[in-house]
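Reviewers of the previous submission asked for a worked example of the structure-prediction workflow described in the proposal, so we include one complete record here. The input consisted solely of the amino acid sequence. No template or homolog information was supplied to the procedure at any stage.
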Amino acid sequence: MTATTVSLTRPGFAYRRVAFAAAIAFVALTVVGWTFLALSFSAPIPSAWGFRGFAGIFGLSFGWIGYLVATRHPRNPIGWCFLAAGVISGIQVAAVEYASYALYGPVRGLGGGEVGAWINDWIWVSLVGLVTVAGFLYFPDGHLLSARWPTVLWLGTTGVVVGSVFLAITPGPMQTFGLNNPFGIESPLTAQTAGSVGGRTTSAAAVAGLFVFGLAAFLAAASQLIRFRRSTGDTRQQLKWFAASAVIVALSLTTSFLNDSRAVQAVLIVSLSLVPVAMGIAILRYRLYEIDTLINRAIVYGALTAILAGIYSASIGLFQRLFVAVVGEKSDAAIVITTLILATAFTPVKSWLQTAADQRFKAPADARKQLASFRESLRLVSEAVDGTALRHRFLDEATTAFRARGARLVIGRGQHQREERRGEWSAATAACDLVDDGVALGRIELCARRDGSSYTKDELAELGKTAAVVARAYVIAERLALTRTPGG
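From that input alone, the workflow returned the following C-alpha cells.
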C-alpha cells in the first residue's frame, strides 16, 4: 500500500495542533492541581461540596472526549466545547488546590492563595454553560435544530457572562473557604441583596445572569426532546446514549437532594463525568447500537432487584410472625426459607421481566424489512461477480466512507484498462494499489476530505485491506465474464 504525503499546512493539521495544545493544557493543569492536593492532603482545610480534586475528573473526562471528537469531527462544535470545558476544569482544580496548599498547607505565607479561591468561585459557571447550553444545542450532529435556536445560544452566553462577572466582582465572603473577595467592587449592582448561590449570598445582577443561563439550559435540554421525537435510525440511537446518561444524572441529583452525604455527592460527580463519555460514544458511533441492550438490562435487573428486595423483606416479616406464633420465639429458619423462596422465584420473575422489556424496547419483526434485507444480500452478491458494478461500488463506498471530495479508480491493463472518477476530482492526497497474488491490477486515489482533515494511518490501512479484497473479487468477476463470452 502506498499513500502520498499530506501537506502539514492543510486546515486539518491546524485543527489537530489546536486540539493537541488544549489536551496538553488540561492534562498539565490537572496534574498540577492533584500535585498540590497531595502536598496538602492532611491539612485542615474547610469543608466543601464533593471531594477534593473532583474538578480534575471533569477535566479529564470532558477534555479527552473533546479531543477525540475535535480531531475526528473538527466541524462539530461539541468537540471544541468539551475541550474548552476540560481546560476550564483543569484551571479550576489547579486554582483551588493551590489555594488550599498556599492557605492551609504545611508551608504558610505563599502568595496568590486568595486569587486561586477567587477563580474557583466563579469559573464553574462557564464550565456548566459550555456543557449544558452549547453541548445540548449542538448534540449530536453539530447543527442547531433550526434558525430560531441561535437565540437560545446567545441567551445562554449572555447569562454565563453576566453571572460569571458579577460573581467575580461581588464583594464580601466567597463560597470558597469563606474568604473575602479580593477583587470585590462596591456598587449598587454588586450589593448583596439577593438569594444564595451555592451557599453564598450574592448580588441581584449575578442571580439574574444565572437565571437567564438556567432558562437557556432548560430550553437546550428541551431541544433534545424535540430531536428525539423527530429522529430515526442512527440519530435516535445517538440520542438514546445521551438520554441514558441524563437519567443517571437525574437520579443521582434527586438522591443528593434527599441525602447530601459525601458518598452521594461522589456518586453524582461520577455520574456527571459519564455524560461526556456517553455523548462521545454517540458522536464517534463506537458500539452505538449496544445502548438498547444496556437500557434493556438496566430495566430488567433494576426492576428485578426492587421486586426481590420487596419479596425478601415481606417474607422475612411473614415467616418471623409465623415462627413466633408457633414456637413463641424468633428463629433463623425464617431467613433460610426466605432464601429458598428467592432462589425459586428468581428465574421466572427474571424471564417475565425480560419478556416485558423486549416487548417494549425491541421492535417486532417486520416482513418488509426482512425481505428488503434479503434483496440487499442478493444485490451485493451480484455486484461482487459483476466487474463494472464492483468498480462503481468501490468508488462510491470509498468516497462516502472517507468523506473525500473526489476519487479515481484506474484498473486493468492495456486495452482493458479503465479509469473512473467520482465527485470533484483534483490532486490526490491518498492512494492505494489494488494487488492480487502479487500482481498489481490498478490503483485507487482519493482527493482531500470535505472537512479539510487529513487521512490517518489506520484509515489508509483499512483502505488497503479493502483494496486487496476488491482486487481478488475483480479477478474472479473478470474470469466469470470470460466464461460467459462465446469462445471464452
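Strands lie at 196-197, 200-201, 406-411, 418-423, 430-436, 439-446. We consider this example representative of the routine output the project will generate in years two and three.
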